[in-house]
Each structure stands twice: as structure tokens, then as C-alpha cells.
Amino acid sequence: MTTDCTAAGEARAHCRGFTITEMLVAMGILMFGTVSLLGALGVGVSTHRSAEQHNQAVQLAHRVLQRLEEEIVPRALLAAAESGEDSAPPFAAVDSTPADVAFAPGMRYRVEFTTDPERPDLVLATVRVLWLEQGEAQAVEFRRILVNHVPFAQRVARLRAERSR
Prior knowledge:
The chain contains two helices and four strands; from the N terminus they run H-E-E-E-E-H. With 165 residues, it is α+β, with helices and mostly antiparallel strands. It has a four-stranded antiparallel sheet, covered by helices on one side.
């Protein structure tokens, strides 16, 4: 036999289902969990964006330092060697150009060189990468020691050229 819970006078103990109060409590708990997850999602997206920009800054600094080692410093040293200077040339600060930072929009860099009078063969290159993140200025610095001398093969070639004159 089936029981009809709508019949008058019957006990509600054997009726199945949820009361409206139980449904409201369950929905409140579900909404609280959903709102918490959405809040955490926003923080996660912000952290991801920040990490991505920091990664771009690291890549930019690495490219700049690599370019310094491969192109700019050897070119300056070669020019100094051709002019007959025995000492290494002083290096001026270098600022970014829009073409340099095309892959990292909104970023810029500055390279400064520091030499030690006691160790003129070494130059400290400091690359400072700057960008805006959520309206706040962010910066990261990278340093690398560059060997500040004319490569051996070029010095030998210069000496041979001087002796043959």
C-alpha cells in the first residue's frame, strides 16, 4: 500500500522530500561556496598575469644582456682597437627603443655600465626592466659581469699589422 502524505491527519514522519527551509540552507551553502571559488579565481588570474609579465621582463633582460655580449661590447672594443687605444672604451648607458621591446608591450629597459678602476678588464652591466602592473610601477634588475678587453685574436692581428708597417 502506498501512503498519501497529503491526506489529513497522517503523520509526516514517513513522507519523503525536503522542506523549504532545508532547500534554502542547501542553496545558501552552495552560493557561499560558488562565491568563494569565484573570488579565488580572480586572485589566480591576477597572479598568473603578474607572473607572465615578470617572465616577459626576465626574457627581455636576457635578450638585452645576450645582445650586449654578442654585439655591442665587441663592436665598441673593436672600434677602440682600430683607433689604437690600449684601454677599453667607456660605455654609455643604453635605453630601450620601441623596436627592442616589440614582443613585450608596455615594458622598457635601461642598461648602465659600471667599471672598477682596480679591475678595468671587467664591466658590470645592470639591466633594469620597468613596466606597469595594475597601475603600479614594477621593476626588476639583472646584473652581469662582462669581460672588457679586445679578444686575443684581434689583439694578435693588430700587433702583426703594426709590425708589418
